[in-house]
Structures are given as C-alpha cells and as structure tokens.
Design a protein that fits this description.
heterodimer, A: about 400 residues, 6-stranded mixed β-barrel, 12 helices, B: 4-stranded antiparallel sheet, 10 strands
Chain lengths: ~400, ~230
C-alpha cells in the first residue's frame, strides 16, 4: 500500500470511531500539556529567582562579617556574632585589589523620615558613590552620592520613588530638605520605581553616605561590603584577594565570609533546575499512562475490526501492510494528542504569564522536545503489539467474525 | 487448460480430542472458464474447500496447483500476492468496510496493491458504470440495499481482473429477486471468461451451474463432469 493511502486509511479508521479516538487523543494531550505547563512553572521559577539575583548586580562579591565554616549562601551568616567588625577602612582597603573594579560598604538600618508634617518609617542604606552602579539601581531624577572621602558623610540623601510620591506628591523633590532621624538632609536624587525584588525594595529606601549612616545608627561596623570584580572570570581572583587583604588587616584571622553572587546563582539555578526536571519526570508518567491507553484502544480496535482484517487479508494485503496500517493509526492518535497537548500547554503557560506578568513561565525547549518525543515514542511503542496481533490473525477465523 | 488441480488434499481439524477430516483425499481438476457449483450439507467441507482454493487456508497434505504452479509451498506474503492478483472473493455477508464509500470499497484491492490513485479512479468509474452503481459511488454500505451491497462486493472482487472468483453463498442474505440479479451478474462474468466457483445450499442456483460438485464428509460425493463422462 502506498504511504498516502496508508495515512488516509488510518485516518478514516480513527475518525470512524470518534469517541474512542477522542478519548485517547485527550489522554495523550493531557500528558503533553502537563509536561509543558509544569516545566514552564518550574523553569519560570528558576528564571525568576536567577533574574532577581542577577538584578542585584553583576560580578558581585559580597563580604559579610563573621566566619562560616563553609562557603556558599547560609542564612546563619546574617546573625553570626562577629569577632572583629568590618569597618569603612576595611572596605576602602579593598580598592587596592587588582581584580576589583568597584567597592561599596553598606550599613543598613531603619529610621523615620519627615517632610512638611508627614512622617513615615523607612529603611536607610548607608553607602558610597559606587553603591548605585554596583547594585544596578537607576536614578529617575538628580544625581547619586558624591564621590568624597568615605569617612566624611555629607548631609545628602537619595530617596526611593514611593517615598517621593508620599512626601512630595507632584512637587519637585530634588533640592528639598528632609529630616531623617535627627538629621536634616538635602534630597539630591530620586531612584527609579522598580517594585518588589528579591533584594531590598528600593521604592521605600533612603540612601545616605556611609559615614552619615554610621553616625546615625551610632555604630562603627558595616553590614556588608559589596565588591565588583573586573569581569566574570576575575570573580575567583577577586574573592581571593579580598580574603587576603582582610586577613592581613585582621591580624591573620579569617573572620569574614566572602560569598560570590555566582555561587548563589549557581546553587539556585541547580536547585530549581532539578525541581523542573522532577516535575517533568512526574508529568512524563502521565505520558506513559497515555501510551498504555493508546495500546488499549488499539487492541480494542483490532478486536472490533477482526472481520475487516480478515477481509484485507482475503483481498491480498500482506502482513506488513496490515501491521503498518494499525501502527500508523496508533502513531496518528499520539501525534494528534501530542500536538493538541502542546498547544494546550502553551496556552496554559500563556495564561500563567498573563495572570502573573513578573513570572516568566516559558516551557524550556528541552522539556517540549522531550515531552513530544516521549508522546510519539510511547504511542508507537505501544502501537507495535496491537499491530502485530492484527497482522498475525488467521484469515479464515477473522473472516468468520463479522 | 487446468486452472486448478488438487491432488490428495487432506485437511484435518483438531476439535478437543476428536480429529475431524474436513477434507479427505480430495482430487479435483477445474479448467479455465468453468462454472462450478459446490453443494452439500453443512459440515461437508465445502467452505474448507473454498478457503483452500482461495489460499486462506493450507492443506495438511496434498498439492494444489493454480495455473500450473504449486501454491501450497508459498510463503504467506506470496500467497497474499496470488490472492491479490488472481482470486476474487464474494461473501455471503458482503464484507464491505462500513466507513468507506462504495467507490472506496471497490478500490480497496487496488489500494492494497499499491496502484496509483489516478488509475484506481479510472477503473472504479468503469466498474461503477458496469455494475449500475454510478449514483451510489459516495454512499456508504449502510445507505445501500442488499443487492447494491453485493454488487459493490462483486465489483470489488473483479476490479483486479482475477482468473478465479470464489463466491460463498452469494445470495444467502438476499431475497429471491435480488439474488437472481446477483447470480446473473456472476454468470455474466463467467461468460466473459472468468472461472466461477459458487458454494451454495440452494438447489435451484446450483442447477444453473454447468458443473455440480456434491460434497459429503470431506469427500467428493458426486461430480457431474465425471457422471456425464
């Protein structure tokens, strides 16, 4: 039989039993759609987290006070007691390192801001001029912190967009005098609105010079030192140099923890990648179930059409032709199911993206390819047995069943 | 010239403990262009004989020469090829594929044989005209009367221009009048040179054949050709 005729014959046979065809196509499409949507969710989560981490800055090396036993990201780092504090001078000394391009100390605290009788709680970040470029923040108005001696904090502030809205409304904010805690500061810049991120919410942030923040919070220590390596390749070198310099300054004691953004990124990337793989595996089980259903449907078809198979044999169809006709039908069921499922899955992922615009729910290519090929593979694999059974039927017996 | 030569054909079925000789030591010669009726009571072996002649079944012993060629030793696929090219079947219950139209049913043997669509369409159009089914080409079997269905089945049996037509109770499911029509159609084909072998219960129909074979217990009880000679 010619290929076009085989295809047409299989198509007519499939559409001749609409209910059973629709059900097996549905089962297959649910399987494929599950793979597409679940991996879109998993990979979306991965992209979201990785994206948020990348937004913190590029080629970032972060110095934390205190020593944790192992490298990597550990929530305990935030609360370990510090044998020796990190100081602004520690931060300044890191600028010597050859693999480092920019350094910004960071002090964090909460305070109150007031202007024109309005008052609210805010988060204060004390840092230096390089803080804004290192963190990839953008200014909507005005300018950043002045490039001055790190130990001399001038009385200026850069405010987040939400604070500007709430305090100044439509009035110009730059140049105004505000009160933060017990200090009077001049607003020199406004940050662009960005919304909620993994790091800090900059819309409700006030950035002041590091020395000023230390005085405000009555402290000598730093919360973090942010170090930017010259390039991605220089990150390990920068980490080593930072460690070495701080060790020297702290009398040979390794009492700081240096983590790289890369390490955190890779950890999350791996973790969420594994998660995606896991859900893909679970979804793939439904594909195997769908494959078995196709086999069942084809076995029923062989039984239902025993008389027809006998006739085809009487009319001179060799075993191969009959095998091929039934295999083509099984392949057709799974192909249509796979395509419908793929479209359903993409539609579902699209709906997810519409509902949660910040969440990049795109199914990864590997999952789509694996899902589709598993669907076709199981369909064919499970189609072989019924097709062979059909081809082996005894024509005399088969003809009697009509 | 002999179209069919059976020598010492045995066909044995195992039914539980019992061994049934459906065909026992059968010798038969049928020439080209003959019109043969095979008659006999149920279980006499006439259906088994027809299946054997149609290469749907194999004998346990003996040889079957079709057009001088030993076809008992052929592989299943080679036998399928012989069925496709040399033998046409007409069944009591028509055996049309319900989801295919009349035209598609008639074309089915050619489709299976891999004949291109254009040639198929030409031949089907001629067959439809020849069997008075022009207006029924796109009808499905359930939309056809019994007589029309059997005409579609006969058109299908002849579309590959076989040398031999095997008809198993071709009028069994038809009323007297349409049965009459179908028999005339088959006889017309025989008149054009096709060998026709009909299995029937119907004495009247059997009597119309030029040669009658009567079977009993797997043996040839009576052969009108021998009786006359």
């Amino acid at each position: 039989m010619r290929l076009a005729d085989t295809l047409r014959f299989a198509r007519d046979a499939a559409t001749g039993y609409p209910m059973r065809t629709a059900l097996s196509v549905l089962a297959m499409s649910i399987g494929v759609a599950a793979v597409v949507i679940l991996t879109a969710l998993g990979d979306g989560a991965r992209r979201y987290v990785v994206g948020q981490f990348s937004a913190i800055g590029t080629n970032l090396v972060i110095v934390l006070p205190g020593r944790s036993g192992t490298g990597g990201f550990n929530p305990a780092n935030a609360i370990t007691t510090t044998p020796r504090d990190l100081t602004i001078d520690d931060a300044g000394s890191l600028r010597r390192a050859s693999a480092v391009s920019r350094v910004a100390p960071l002090i964090v605290g909460t305070s109150e801001i007031s202007f024109g009788g309005k008052l609210r709680e805010i988060m204060v970040a004390g840092s230096t001029s390089d803080f804004i470029p290192i963190r990839n923040f953008e200014l909507a108005q005005g300018r950043g912190l002045p490039d001055e001696d790190w130990n001399r904090g001038s009385s200026v502030a850069i405010i987040g967009n939400k604070i500007r809205e709430e305090l100044f409304g439509n009035e110009p904010a730059v140049g105004q005098l505000i009160r933060v805690g017990d200090r009077r500061l001049r607003v020199i810049g406004v940050l662009k609105a960005v919304g909620q991120g993994l790091g800090m919410n900059t819309d409700e942030l006030v950035i002041v010079p590091a020395a000023l923040a230390q005085a405000m919070f009555n402290t000598n220590t730093l919360f973090r030192i942010l170090v930017e390596a010259r390039s991605r390749e220089a990150i390990p070198e920068a980490k080593e140099q930072v460690m070495e310099i701080l060790k020297q300054r702290h009398r040979g004691e390794e009492d700081v923890t240096v983590i790289t953004q890369d390490a955190v990124l890779v950890t999350f990337d791996k973790l969420l990648g594994a998660l995606t793989l896991g859900v893909a595996g679970i979804a793939a089980i439904s594909l195997a179930v769908a494959g078995i259903l196709v086999m069942n449907v084809m076995l029923v078809a062989v039984t239902q059409r025993t008389g027809e198979i006998g006739l085809l044999k009487a009319l001179g169809a060799p075993a191969r032709t009959i095998r091929l006709a039934f295999l083509t039908e099984a392949a057709m069921l799974s192909t249509v199911g796979a395509v419908v499922g793929y479209l359903l899955g993409q539609l579902g992922a699209f709906a997810l993206r519409q509902a949660f615009p910040v969440f990049p729910a795109y199914p990864p290519d590997w999952a789509v390819i694996a899902g589709l090929s598993t669907a076709l593979g199981t369909g064919l694999l499970f189609g072989v047995m019924p097709a062979r059974r059909a081809a082996r039927l005894d024509p005399v017996q088969a003809l009697m069943k009509h | 010239m002999a179209l069919i030569e059976l020598k010492g054909i045995e066909r044995v079925f195992q039914l539980g403990d019992a061994t049934v000789h459906a065909l026992a030591g059968l010798n038969l010669r049928i020439d080209n262009g003959e019109y043969v009726a095979v008659m006999g009571p149920s279980g006499s072996g006439k259906s088994t004989l027809l299946n054997l002649l149609g290469l749907l079944d194999r004998p346990n012993a003996g040889t079957y020469l079709l057009e001088g060629r030993d076809v008992t030793t052929l592989s299943p696929d080679e036998q399928a090829r012989v069925r496709s090219e040399r033998i046409g079947f007409v069944f009591q219950s028509f055996h049309l594929v319900p989801r295919l139209t009349a035209a598609e049913n008639i074309a089915l043997p050619m489709t299976l044989a891999g004949i291109p669509a254009r040639e198929r369409n030409d031949r089907v159009a001629r067959a439809l005209a020849g069997f008075g089914l022009e207006n029924r080409a796109d009808h499905r079997p359930e939309q056809l009367s019994g007589g029309q269905r059997q005409r579609v089945a006969i058109a299908r049996a002849t579309i590959m221009q076989p040398a031999l037509i095997l008809a198993d109770e071709p009028t069994g499911n038809l009323d007297r009048h349409t049965g009459e029509e179908v028999v005339s159609l088959l006889e017309g084909l025989n008149a054009s040179g096709v060998t026709l072998i009909v299995v029937t219960h119907d004495q009247a129909m059997g009597a119309r054949a030029r040669r009658q074979l009567v079977m009993e217990d797997g043996r040839l009880e009576h052969d009108s050709a021998n009786a006359a000679g």
